[in-house]
Amino acid sequence: MFLGTVVARFYGWQFQCPTPVKFLSIACTYAAVTCIPFDSMRSNDLGKIPNILIVALLLLGGYETIVTALNEDPDMWAFGNKWITAFLNEYCVALFIPPIFIYLCENRDNVVYSQRLTKAYMIFLLIYVVLGRGLTHIGYISFWGLAFWPFVNMKYRYMLIAVEIFTFFAFVSETRMLAMPLAYGVAGYLLMYRFKGAFVKELCIGSMVAPFILFIPTLYFDEDTSSEDSIFTQLVQQVIGSDDGGEQDNTDTRTFLYVEMSADLSDTDSWILGKGAYAHYYSEYFDEGESDNDRYGRISSEVPFLNFLMHGGIAYCTLYLLLLGYGIINAIFFGKNKFVKSVAVMLAGYFFNFFVGDLTGCYFFHMMIFMLLGCCLSSSWINLTDKEIYKFMHIYKSEEEGDEEDDDDDDDEKDYDENDENDEEDEEDDEEDLYEEENSDNEKNTNF
Predict the structure, then answer these.
(1) pTM (2 decimals)?
(2) Tens digit of pLDDT for each residue in 245-266?
(3) Residue 86 burial (CB count, 10 A)
């Protein structure tokens, strides 16, 4: 998965890659699936509800693949060979793969090793930026990179800082959506490690509720109301400014995508189960006047939610969001360590971005997101103390540093130690109270 993503990112998105690179990228994706410990599907500590949701997602993905295989619509050949497009395009069958990567969290070594892979991924993308290959892809690392900050050395941290800086420049110059991974990544670290978890619950819950207010109502727009401003449009205009000069920075580029997808799903009666793993929809904006060029719609949308709605319908979207939301809630309310709670904040950003940003596909980013989601679902990860997490996550420290640790690492370790000491003091106080209550009961019995 890592290899395929690194090679593909040199060219940009997968559809921009030469055919051999596309084959290599998707082959690595399918190869990564074979590395999943399938015994973990039968025996794990994710809990009954998450396991049901994961299996349901995988089965529904299989169903959508069968629908595609049986679909005899001649338009499906308009994009090239039907079977090659279906199985070798990351927006089709591969779109349903990522949930299976949750099981990688069952082996702690996978999470620890992912720190090394993240470092290598940052090195490659930073080189690509220097070569002028674009800034957009480096910004996605912000969704999870800072979760490793307390456990890594200064060289690693300098790269994380560079990633955040380049993400900011990409947000300002190219892609507005990158404001979300930047904001949620930084918030996940600062709120948990510097502000003792303040406002974490409010931020996560608000991020999961907001899309149903800002975006879902847009699906009910029709031709008569599509000219009206959606709630999201009004918010963009208030925060950024009114679009009085046609400036791209002030333009809502998402509402019309919701309106077009809604119209297509209504025309084809595909709301509940979608249109299959390989599907397309008609876009008035992109397809108007293109009939002479053999355009038969689009096989993907810039919004992940709309993509899954087209391919898997309301059924798949509901299961997907329930699984993601369950992990976030489980971490922020029942997590006993800062790591899973900081990851939950970053996942809340992914949840919100699911309705607005272009994060669709199946590559290294999705593997990391779902593996870390697994940490938020796993009882073994949830119940670890900060000190326990620090001990085995901190082994990444380069051996060259030996016993010399920088001041920041000492501060992080002190923070973990102080939390554990506070927990131990609370437990001792509870034991003393219980002891005193028992003694008073004994005295009462004796007096009686």
Answers:
(1) 0.84
(2) 444 444 556 778 888 888 889 9
(3) 22
